[in-house]
Write a structure and sequence with these properties.
96 residues; alpha+beta; 29% strand; globular
Length: 96
């Protein structure tokens, strides 16, 4: 691939995707906010120079959605990766 070529990846989300949670998901993966465009009307996320598994972005967004919902309802979520390589959430009720 020539040095002037820019590769892009497109991930399709729903039209109701929360752009702030998506930004947090990309940041949790170590991705720069300078390299993506999210179209709120179509739900398409286009990321420039992404070389990873596209499903990883969707999983990171899903974790952010779970975290936000849990926080809103008074729960605490701690994410871990189990021996099989799957993400697992430990959920606790936050005492008031």
């Amino acid at each position: 691939m020539p040095c002037y070529t820019v590769s892009t990846a497109t991930v399709q989300f729903g039209k109701n995707t929360d752009a702030e949670l998506l930004r947090l998901a990309l940041r949790s993966l170590g991705l720069s906010a300078d390299n993506y465009v999210f179209n709120r009307e179509t739900g398409a996320l286009t990321y420039r120079s992404y070389v990873g598994d596209l499903a990883t972005i969707k999983r990171a967004y899903s974790e952010q959605v779970v975290n936000a919902s849990a926080k809103k309802n008074g729960w605490s979520v701690n994410w871990k990766t189990n021996a099989a390589g799957n993400r697992v959430a430990d959920v606790e009720r936050v005492s008031r």
